[in-house]
Specification:
By secondary structure, this protein is mainly α. It contains 15 helices and no strands. The chain is 73% helix and 0% strand. The longest helix has 42 residues. The relative contact order is 0.13.
């Protein structure tokens, strides 16, 4: 009932904001209401269906092994979830990762919109911004309060499965490779390699959503909504357009995620050596890891944005007719175009917005992921203890 009331309240607020908000504002408002309704409507069923199942006898024995040295441990004690049984770890990691990814992208979406605008090579005079706050203020004042949220539902749809694959793959490979490279201890090489492989799956699921999102974020975007954008891109440029930046995305995200995971795990060793559930350490480690990786990979992000948006009005050559345009077809072409139009400085357009976006984004992602991972694993742990006690009776 509370969820339905929340959705109705948001709908009434959006409708009362004014009927003259324009196509972009109406589209973004509908996307927010769409996402809110879906999220509240299915969250309970997802949690119930993906809650880790009670394990078999071998898992109960592992619980005994974990709990045996701590006879004084009560049901309210905080278990070390890194050492708990992993009977349903894949579903736990996938659910926690999906929620973390959706939260990360949706909370930080307005800043992501600003980043896309600021990475434009030759923006319209009305879309030249001094900094992140100036951009947000001017976008809201000139284009409506909902404009920075346009494309949100495309991101939410892509972020869920992409981050589910991302975290589940990372956790599985991290353990497997660490046991091979450095048995019984953390391996930075294993963390980096696991992050690289996880990125391949994440970007394969997320890249089409990125294309749609960034085209809708651009100044004077011609698309009425997400479906209109998908249909128009498919008809005019073909399905390959949704993966035109995939190679660049991987070229950027593989080093980004390798550096991100290695930094996060290293900071966790320093701040949280026993790997207990510690929200402050997860947030601080995630924020610092995201900032370092974001700053180092900004040039590739600028090229990725150019490949996704295909700034036709910017890329027209002086000798071409008014209707003609150049199509950026690959990473090297994007690099040459950025250098030709902006010089070396052009590769760091939007670096401030990118770092400001990534710091809270990765902090949110890791803290939400670790929270759900801890809660689901503790629930599994307690269920196994209850079942074992019943079996003994």
């Amino acid at each position: 009932m509370e969820a339905d009331g929340f959705v109705r309240k948001r709908r009434m607020t959006a409708e009362n904001a004014g009927s003259d908000a324009g196509v972009a504002g109406a589209s973004a408002g509908a996307e927010v209401r769409w996402f809110g309704g879906r999220f509240w409507g299915v969250s309970e069923s997802i949690v119930n269906s993906l809650t880790p199942r009670i394990g078999g006898e071998s898992q109960l024995q592992r619980v005994d092994a974990v709990c045996a040295p701590q006879d004084a441990l009560t049901e309210d004690s905080e278990p070390d979830y890194e050492g708990l049984p992993q009977g349903a770890s894949t579903s736990t990691h996938m659910l926690a990762g999906a929620v973390a990814g959706i939260m990360e992208h949706c909370v930080m979406f307005p800043v992501d919109c600003v980043k896309t605008r600021m990475q434009s090579l030759q923006p319209d005079p009305a879309a030249r911004y001094k900094n992140v706050m100036d951009a947000l203020r001017r976008i809201v004042a000139a284009e409506g309060v909902w404009r920075p949220l346009r494309g949100l539902n495309a991101t939410a749809v892509g972020a869920g499965p992409a981050h589910a694959l991302y975290f589940a793959t990372y956790e599985k490979l991290k353990r497997t490779l660490s046991d091979t490279i450095h048995p019984g201890a953390n391996s930075h090489l294993a963390n980096g390699a696991a992050g690289c492989v996880a990125t391949l799956l994440h970007d394969a699921a997320m890249n089409p959503a990125e294309v749609v999102k960034q085209r809708m974020q651009m100044y004077k975007s011609p698309y009425r909504g997400v479906l209109d954008c998908v249909r128009t891109v498919w008809q005019r440029e073909g399905p390959a357009a949704f993966y035109r930046s995939y190679a660049t995305q991987l070229t950027m995200n593989v080093p980004f995620q390798a550096l991100h995971f290695m930094t996060y795990e290293h900071l966790q060793e320093q701040l949280n050596p026993h790997r207990l559930y510690n929200p402050s350490s997860h947030m601080l480690s995630g924020a610092l890891a995201g900032a370092i990786a974001a700053a180092a990979t900004t040039p590739l992000d600028v090229c990725k944005t150019l490949l996704n948006t295909q700034e036709f009005h910017t890329l027209r050559s002086p000798g071409q007719k008014q209707g003609a345009h150049i199509r950026i077809s690959g990473l090297l072409h994007a690099f040459r175009t950025v250098y030709r139009l902006g010089g070396l400085q052009g590769f760091f357009r939007g670096v401030q917005a990118r770092v400001i976006y990534q710091m809270p984004s990765t902090a949110i992602s890791w803290s939400v992921y670790e929270f759900f991972k801890y809660g689901l694993t503790k629930h599994q742990h307690n269920n196994m203890k209850v079942q074992h006690m019943k079996a003994e009776v």
